[in-house]
Design a protein that fits this description.
With 139 residues, the chain is an all-beta fold. 0% of the residues lie in helices and 54% in strands. 26% of the residues are buried.
Length: 139
């Protein structure tokens, strides 16, 4: 039976800004795609326009968001996918590792915060050059 769910992207953290100098900031844009088994697809670009300048230095490498990226009905499947790109006008843009996670079963089993460290060493939200944190809740 479908249930109303909300997915909120809480934060994005860059661990490698894909720039040659360690002090430089990368220029990033992100795309979030959420899909349900009912065929509903919601795509979000962050930021809506332009890009974010993000360092890889601790204390300067995390963007706090609290951005609702999906609010709708989900049955027994929900897919959350995020892509990121470090935009470079001179040397060409670099893609971050793609994050994709499929939740299956009862929507109540998906509820909670999803981020690095909540599932051990092989945590899917701890990617090779970035990390994400998001929340799924029943509404």
């Amino acid at each position: 039976m479908p249930a109303p769910v909300r997915v909120t992207l809480k934060w994005i953290q860059i661990t490698d800004n894909l720039e040659p100098g360690r002090d430089k900031e990368g220029e990033f844009v992100f795309r979030i795609r959420v899909e349900t088994d009912g065929g509903e697809i919601v795509e979000t670009r962050l930021p809506e326009e332009g890009s974010w300048f993000i360092s890889q230095k601790p204390g300067k490498n995390r963007v706090k968001l609290d951005e609702v990226v999906f609010e709708g009905e989900a049955g027994s499947r929900l897919v959350v996918e995020l892509t990121g790109e470090e935009q470079d006008r001179l040397t060409g843009s670099d893609s971050l590792e793609t994050y994709r996670r499929e939740f299956a079963g009862e929507p109540s089993s998906w509820v909670g915060l999803h981020g690095p460290g909540d599932e051990g060493d092989e945590d899917p939200e701890n990617l090779s050059n970035w990390r994400i944190g998001y929340e799924i809740e029943l509404i």
